[in-house]
Amino acid sequence: MPPFKHDVPTLAEISARAFETDTNTRLKALPSGVSHATDMIPALVSWVSSPERCHLLKAVSIGDSGEQEIAGWACRAFKNIIPPLSPVSIPDPSSTHPEVIIKEE
Fold first, then answer.
1. Residue 96 phi/psi, 5° resolution?
2. Is the pTM of this model over 0.70?
3. Which residues contact 92 (CB under 8 A, 6 or more apart)?
């Protein structure tokens, strides 16, 4: 599902936790003491505000009583690409790869 601007702090915190043990990220933060989460906020706000260019998705976990919690996120950005006028059709994999068996349900 798409995130909203009020989700940005949570998305930034998830990113910071994901990169906590990343050596390159930790080395970049050493001299300046910058917070990864703080650095991610402007980018995330921009991505949330540009759905035509950035496809940002949040993964949501739903608890037993229906409460939702953001569990993760992903973003795919496009630059200088003209989107197709119509949806792209996906070919049947068995037509090019006969070893693939597709079960009809």
1. -105, -20
2. no
3. 102
pLDDT in tens, 37-86: 888 899 999 989 888 888 889 999 988 888 889 999 999 887 777 666 65
The CB-side HSE value for 9 (13 A sphere, CA atoms) comes to 1
User: What is the spatial distance between Cα 54 and Cα 59, in angstroms, rounded to a whole number?
Assistant: 16
- Using CA atoms, how far residue 54 sits from 24, 31, 81, 93, in Å, is 25, 31, 12, 28
Q: In whole angstroms, how far apart are CA 15 and each of 2, 4, 38, 71?
A: 16, 16, 10, 11
The contacts of residue 54 (CB under 8 Å, 6+ apart) are 46, 47, 48, 75, 76, 77, 78
